[in-house]
């Protein structure tokens, strides 16, 4: 943003989080430039009418509205009441830490929105400028700061409407909005390309793993039918063994406890939400379990944990014996691997293969919540090379995937930097810290 100059003269806005604004700009509360919650569904709507519903979890800050769920009105939650039109801005007034703020595009203009959103509609302001003003990081932070409640922070729509925004003259609003439309579109295109690159890298990574753990590294080796449809052929000298026969004991469900605030002297309580997309434990939000309760669920080095239900079903984690004791939660299943039969790290690579995920998809119960039981996990067929070959495959996979993982991490970081640049540009432009008019 160094190529944008500041305005010539500034004055104090009187609002701490806005700071200085151009001297010719005004400062107005949202309620003076936009209406709030103009439209709701009529009470007379029939229960069998199909609606597209958007809730808080379907909206991401700077990601926009990600999806809408098609559902009969009779099956929709009671909070499915808000209506909007294209160009409106929706702002989450509940769980404000999620920063669920987005502009309504043509694609979602026919949707019904949760009453957890306030719907803002430009009245005395350029419609596009309103969008960018509300998406300012400073305003989103102000919404969080004015929220009440600890576990479920929320802000009243009336309080939201009183928050102030910097308002330039009408012609300037249009110019600022035009520049932000152009510049953010350019940044979004770069982000999309990098995101696609990551997807391709992940596909390549999985393909390399799948070939190694089901076919081996020697393309000239004699093959045989595994007898398992989703596995296909395997090297002739390999075995194909159910997971339960490769363990030191039965698969075990975790503790049905909520956990306590993290206490260093107590065992770490591992929940599936604690594991990131790279199979690593997150440090934030850690929980503990009292030693007396945790005892039957303590995990040892190289134990593997499986997610058994919900959106993360099939996800796995290998415990590498970190410098603390750990136990595991009820929505997870523990497998203690027999090291004389299979290397835990090698098995963990198999659990990242396409073949494994094909099995998981086919094994999920037809209940409302996706579920794979311990019995199903135990019946998972595992291609089993001799131990020495497992070691060679493991060396190859670690070396190959580490290069791909490093490239993915660098690309993810570059995406984060682009998002930070995007956010900073928006905030600087709509608060007058930079003058973008010449760029229009």
Q: Termini, distance in Å?
A: 15 Å
Number of alpha- plus pi-helical segments: 10
- Biggest sheet overview: 5 strands, mixed
Question: What is the CA-based Rg, rounded?
Answer: 27 Å
What layout of secondary structure does this protein have?
Elements: E1 10-12, E2 20-22, E3 26-29, H1 30-33, E4 34-36, E5 39-40, E6 50-54, E7 59-60, E8 64-65, E9 69-72, E10 80-83, E11 89-92, E12 101-103, E13 112-114, E14 117-122, H2 127-134, H3 137-145, H4 157-162, E15 164-167, H5 170-215, E16 223-225, E17 233-235, E18 239-242, E19 252-253, E20 260-261, E21 268-270, E22 287-288, H6 291-294, E23 304-307, E24 316-318, E25 326-328, E26 332-335, H7 344-350, H8 354-363, H9 374-378, E27 381-384, H10 387-430
Parallel strand pairs: 6-13, 21-25
Antiparallel strand pairs: 1-2, 3-15, 4-14, 5-10, 6-9, 7-8, 10-13, 11-12, 11-14, 16-17, 18-27, 19-26, 20-22, 21-22, 23-24, 23-26
Helix pairs in contact: 5-10
Q: Which features would summarize this protein structure in a list?
A:
single chain; 440 residues; alpha+beta; five-stranded mixed sheet; four-stranded antiparallel sheet
Task: Summarize the structure in words.
This protein is of the alpha+beta class and 440 residues long. The protein has helices at residues 30-33, 127-134, 137-145, 157-162, 170-215, 291-294, 344-350, 354-363, 374-378, 387-430; strands at 10-12, 20-22, 26-29, 34-36, 39-40, 50-54, 59-60, 64-65, 69-72, 80-83, 89-92, 101-103, 112-114, 117-122, 164-167, 223-225, 233-235, 239-242, 252-253, 260-261, 268-270, 287-288, 304-307, 316-318, 326-328, 332-335, 381-384. Strands 5-10-13-6-9 form a five-stranded mixed beta sheet, with no helix packed on it. A four-stranded antiparallel beta sheet has the order 4-14-11-12. A hairpin with a 7-residue loop joins strand 1 and strand 2. Helix 5 (170-215) runs antiparallel to helix 10. It is elongated and about 80 Å long. The two termini are 15 Å apart. The model has no long low-confidence stretch (mean pLDDT 92).
